[in-house]
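The authors assume throughout that readers already know how a fold can be written as discrete tokens. A single example would do more here than another paragraph of explanation. An entry of this sort, consisting of the sequence and the corresponding backbone structure tokens, reads as follows:
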Amino acid sequence: MSFANAAMLLGMLGVAIPVLIHLWNRRRVPTIAWGAMQFLDLGPRSRTRMRLAEWLLLAARMLILALVALAAARPIWSSGLGPALGGEAPKDVVIVIDASGGMARRGGGSSPWSEARARADAIVEQLGPGDAAAVVRAGDRARAVLDPPGVDRSRIRGALDALPPPGGSADLPAALGEAFRVLEQSGRHPAAEVVVLTDGDRNPWRLDEPGRWRLLRALHDRLPVPPAIAVESFDVSVDPEAADGAVIDALASRRFIVPGGTIRVGATVRNLGPGTLERSAELVVDGASVPGSSRAVGPLAAGGEVVVEFRTALDAIGSHAVGVRLAPGGTDDPLPVNDASALVVEVAEAMPVLLVDGEPGDRPMTGAADFLRVALMPLGDEAPQFRVSALPPEALNAEALEGQRLLVLANVPSLGPEAAAAVASWAGQGGGVLVVPGDRTDADAWNQAAFREGDGWLPARIGSLRGRFDDRSPIARPLPTSFAAPVFGAIDRDGAPSALGSAALFAAYELIPAEREPAAEVLARLDSGGPWLVDRPVGSGRAAILAGSLDAEGGTLPANPDFVPFVHEVMFRLADPEADAPATRPGAPLVVPVGPSSLAGREAIAVRTPSGRSAEAELDRTDDGVIARLTDTDEAGLYRFDLPGGSLYRLVAAEQAEPPREPLSAGDAEAIAEGWPLAFAADDRLGSRPAGGPGRSPRPLWRALVLAALAGLCLEVWLTRRLARRRGPAAVAGLD
């Protein structure tokens, strides 16, 4: 015997209410004798019958209250007599399906995913007339795809059919927690079961997190109806000669370019075994392979890996899906879901750059920003990547920054309060700022106006100056081994050290990076150990500062062969405020700004998921424009938003790459099952009771108790009327 709502047993205290009322009414009244009383007086036998009826009435009232309290506590009786008494009680069943990439492993003409889907369909078929079922997808993030549990079989099958295909990693402890939440909030039956369908891999169980398992057991014990948990594992036999090639960590030299710009795209190809990998890798742009990009990979032994790189130019303005993919090999790949990796690259028109020159030259190439101007907008270039304009420091204000994407402050002595506030506001709204100090820079004024003890937008405090400008005596050089940031990816000459290491600096300021959030990042250092390039997010934008100038007075950088690509990469990093932003994770909504044109009257736009499924993103019109919001992001990969003017891509990155498969051992299974009603199916199949113990049939008793209470109420009414008729003469006689 157990109770689904044991707290309601406190209602049993109400049994004392009729007794208290009875005791309260036992008060003595004076008896006045008069002549005719002898004809109304009851005999001893009648008195005994009436007292017996009073006690029965009191007992009936107490019984009614006790039965109501017991029914509210929802008692459950489990025994082997259930089938003989009319079958099992209705139950809530939660089907948890492992959606890790390993579930797509192919072998013998099947996969764990297809086996698990077939088993889920069988469980639905075995549900009783009153049973309800919910479905939880255990992917990178656990999510209930059918909640609350439903009794409509077509609705349950529809939820199973709509499950995204497996991919990425899985978190089975989180999925169990989600199943417990569903049962706690929506379970309405006196019995509950959780069925976990997985592939027997150890990794999704997260056994290295014992604290989470203790919490799960505690949550299970606190449920009104603690469910039994059954685990069924499905595995397939993989061809021992087949090699599982995986493409991971696709990267681009930059994610933001202008039409005609060239980027480098690379990825790591790894052989997860068991056979030897001999495949070819190809560059893929917007879902189509680039002609002539295929290159051989291998032979790679199990566990081996190699980095492949491609170069490509993009012309069409908009977002593009760029990545690396393994071409189909001679033998079947047992796990094709990991054969590609991609990212999003944005192509935009030539970016407007505002140069503020604090030391204009009286002759060509003598000003503080002259070399920068030529590097960004070379003479004779018919399709420049930047549109450069210039103005003096005193003309810098909010109006001058309108329509600009980038701002370069070259050897500006100081910023007035109005200019500093205008730059801070403009950068916070998505602009990119590069500060290049020189011989006219007033460090104290800059620190006071823009750094402000780390609370301003300047990434680093400007310290003391080492060396002298235009002294021609080198005091430091850039350190190529410190060029770890992506901004230097395009400068790397096929693995050879960057030529920037040969450039000499005649003078350099000491930079003290800001430590307050958001903290600054040192992107490059000098061979003296001090920072050379430091940047920091500023609201929706980004700001950076160099330790020295970029003109001929500050060093030999303008004559370095890597000067132009270095300047370009710094500008592109500043133009991409999300360069270091964390990727959207599965389950988090994708919010995409879209143009309002051709969207009048539309409430949603079509979206293509990474697996090719169709979805819809709702349109939301705000004061800042129209945005599309997609909440169904369980799949990791590229999502394509189909807009009237073309396609727009967004990436959802997995929480982590799925580790190599490691079978769950018997000891691991015992550790998982210890201390609570969790059982692994020995034969990988369960009978008609997915999680219940053999021969046990939980039956709810609350209906019978309610019927008994109604019967007791009828008895109480009958006894009251009978007692009232008998007590009529006695009441007149004043019997006590």
In short: The chain is about 25% helix and 30% strand. The first helix runs from residue 16 to 24.
